[in-house]
Amino acid sequence: MNQLVAAIARFGGVLKVISGFAVFGFLIWSTYFTGSYELTFLKGVLAFVALSIFAGVTSWIPFGTTLAPIWFEWWWHDIPFWEFSTAAWTITGVSIVANILLLAGGLLESSRRK
User: Fold this and answer.
1) Rounded CA gap, 103 and 12, in Å?
2) What is the C-alpha separation between 79 and 47, in angstroms, rounded?
3) Cβ 26 vs Cβ 88: under 8 Å
4) What pLDDT, in 10s, does the model give residues 34-71?
5) What is the value of pTM for the model shown?
6) Can you tell me the distance from the alpha carbon of 33 to that of 13, in angstroms, rounded to the nearest whole number?
7) C-beta separation of 108 from 8 below 8 A
């Protein structure tokens, strides 16, 4: 049981790191390749700075990185809630699973120690 709990927590941690990179990759993809607007070089650099600030601010909020793809599509592309892209829902789902595995591993480990 001890090794299973450690494996759950480790897998959740690895998945959380991967989903963090996937979230930022999604933000870049969504900004530069799905919009119906033209980004010049200057606008592209400013958009990257805005993405970095957005990712930094959402990382301070509990579960902010998890919900960042959905918030971004709502904010940047002005998409209604139920019309978000499949990629946004998928990345959000993977991040939610990572959070659940981390939480389960931590709770199981703390209950095992009692």
Assistant:
1) 8
2) 18
3) yes
4) 766 777 878 888 888 988 898 888 888 888 888 899 98
5) 0.78
6) 30
7) yes
Helix, strand, coil percentages, rounded to 5, for the chain: 85, 0, 15
Q: What is the largest CA-CA distance in the chain?
A: 59
Q: How far is CA 103 from CA 3, 52, 58, 106, 109, in A?
A: 16, 27, 20, 5, 10
Contacts of 41 (CB under 8 A, 6+ apart): none
Q: Please, what is the Cα angle at 57 between 41 and 51, to 5 degrees?
A: 15
Angle in degrees, 0-180, between the axes of helices 41-60 and 2-33, rounded to the nearest 10: 150
CB atoms inside a 10 Å sphere around CB 80? 8
DSSP assignment letter at 61: S
Answer for the pair 95, 62: CB distance below 8 angstroms, yes or no.
no
Q: Which amino acid is present at 27?
A: L
